[in-house]
Write a structure and sequence with these properties.
The complex is a heterodimer of chains A (about 120) and B (about 260).
Chain A: E1 3-6, H1 10-22, E2 28-31, H2 34-43, E3 48-51, H3 60-69, E4 78-82, H4 87-95, E5 100-103, H5 108-123
Parallel strand pairs in A: 1-2, 1-3, 3-4, 4-5
Helix pairs in contact in A: 2-3
Chain B: H1 2-27, H2 31-66, H3 81-132, H4 138-171, H5 175-211, H6 217-227, H7 250-259
The chains are: A alpha/beta (about 120), B mainly alpha (about 260).
Chain lengths: ~120, ~260
């Protein structure tokens, strides 16, 4: 299981990386926005994408749309972990095809639940 | 402000009186007087306009001097207050990032120690159970005794280290005091700037009245709304629990998503 973590703040990437490791996912890579994430997704057989929304360059929602529009990537499960909490935005993400939505600040428990739920649905 | 109102009032009453006289003189066919009246009106209007523009300029100048935005002003500090505020906020970003990384370093150092103690305790506990149930021979017990001795020594050493690291985590939170002070000062500056801007806006509106300029507020608002497109992201929401259009916690998000069929 290879996971790409996309967030413009290195501390947040590190927090998510640590929490994922606690959950048993040790194979992770990091990108600081959509522009750097996309080529990584194209070249590196990732199984899961965790992304922030608000980032300089390419935002998380645009990255999600780019992933869904790409034939090779469109089935990649995407979890959004973001401070963006407006109802319109959550609906926008859902319509763009997000698999899970976690608002910051979040707990390890919430992250675990959402990830497990996504895998249940993907595998089931 | 009282003076402004009376200046505006003078202009308006003069305008009324002159307008009436203007109609009268036009009806009497006295064009010379009519032109003279229009000139007078212009003069009154210009005087008011110059007066308001003058005040606005003076106030702008004061604002610039107060905030030391202009480095050519002799008593300007080395940097303007705005630049200073930006630097202060950058300092906050650096401090909080450093503290977060320091804390995570310490947690990453502590976790394996605690996990190690836990795992070894679990394994020893299982073997201790076998010993108590008399399922262990003399050789096995000698081995168990040696492991318990080692475990006790390791636990003592590691707990001292974890305790020290927990203390360092505590100390790494000292940024809160410093960044709190910095942010309070910047907030103060923002409030001051806002107050001065408001004064300038009020004066500018006075100029607009004399000049007869009208702004289309609907268009201005629409432009602002357009800049706030949700796709760009807005960052954390303040007072999320008091707003209808914002999910205030993860449960809200989950409810919304499940209502959408997630």
């Amino acid at each position: 299981m290879k996971i790409l973590i996309v967030d413009d703040f290195s501390t947040m990437r590190r927090i998510i990386k640590n929490l994922l490791r606690d959950l048993g996912f040790t194979n992770t890579a990091e990108a600081d926005d959509g522009t750097t994430a996309l080529p990584m997704l194209h070249s590196g057989s990732f199984d899961f994408l965790v992304t922030d929304w608000n980032m300089p360059g390419m935002t998380g929602i645009d990255l999600l749309r780019a992933v869904r529009a790409d034939d090779r990537l469109k089935h990649l499960p995407v979890l959004m972990v973001t401070a963006e909490a407006k109802r319109d935005q959550i609906i926008e993400a859902a319509q763009a095809g997000v698999n899970g939505y976690v608002v910051k600040p979040f707990t390890a428990q919430v992250l675990k639940e959402k990830i497990e739920k996504i895998f249940e649905r993907v595998n089931g | 402000m009282e003076h402004d109102d009376s200046a505006q009032g003078d202009f308006e009453s003069t305008l009324k009186i002159h307008a009436r006289q203007l109609v009268e003189s036009l009806e009497h066919g006295d064009f010379g007087e009519a032109v003279q009246l229009i000139n007078d009106l212009n003069k009154v209007r210009d005087r008011g306009l110059y007066h308001e523009v003058g005040k606005l300029t003076r106030e702008l100048h004061n604002a610039i001097v107060n905030f030391q935005l202009d480095p050519r002003v002799p008593h300007a500090k080395e940097v303007s207050q705005i630049t200073d505020a930006t630097e202060r906020l950058n300092y906050v970003v650096t401090m909080t990032e450093k503290a977060a990384n320091r804390t995570m370093d310490l947690v990453e150092q502590s976790s394996p120690l605690v996990n190690g103690i836990g795992a070894e305790a679990q394994s020893l506990s299982a073997d201790w159970g076998r010993f108590m149930r008399r399922e262990m021979g003399a050789e096995g017990f000698r081995d168990l005794a040696r492991r318990i001795e080692l475990f006790l020594a390791n636990s003592e050493r590691d707990s001292v280290q974890v305790s020290a690291q927990l203390n360092d985590i505590l100390l790494a939170q000292d940024y809160q005091d410093l960044t709190g002070q910095v942010i309070k000062r910047v907030t103060q500056l923002v409030t001051e700037v806002e107050g001065n801007l408001l004064k300038l806006v009020l004066m500018a509106s006075q100029v607009d009245r004399f000049a007869g300029i009208e702004h289309d507020h609907a268009v201005l608002r629409a432009e602002q709304e357009q800049q706030k497109e949700p796709s760009h992201g807005e960052g954390p929401q303040i007072h999320a629990d008091k707003r209808e259009d914002v999910a205030s916690n993860q449960d809200d998000v989950d409810d919304l998503l499940s209502s959408l069929g997630f």
